[in-house]
Design goal:
Blueprint: H1 2-6, E1 11-15, H2 21-25, H3 29-42, E2 48-53, H4 56-59, H5 62-67, H6 71-75, E3 86-91, H7 101-104, E4 110-115
Parallel strand pairs: 1-2, 2-3, 3-4
Length: 121
Amino acid sequence: MKDLVAAGAKYLQFEDLGAWLPLFTNDKNDYTWIKDVVAQCCDGVKAKIGWHFCFGNAWGNDILSANFPEGYQTVLPNFFDTPASTVRLDYAKSQHGRHRIHEESPKDKDVQIGCLDIARA
């Protein structure tokens, strides 16, 4: 990441990084090591850092939605204290917008939200 900044990058983004893994392992310790990896990657990096949480397509799946209906609400609060300054959320169906996780995020985080309808793609 430091090499990318040295080459001129001003914004870097993590792509998911298995942030959903603790839902499947049912081991809350997984949140800790995932946060540690993010912190290590960001240490000393002088750029804006985003983290794209790619749950929207997964939660467009009826099986995942039934087993983990509160995906973002369950997972995101565990990662609010990471060095990522931007949290990017995606939604695959309009009904996923029922919660207000973006209003619950810390004030030092930018929240970006996208929506697509995979049923019509």
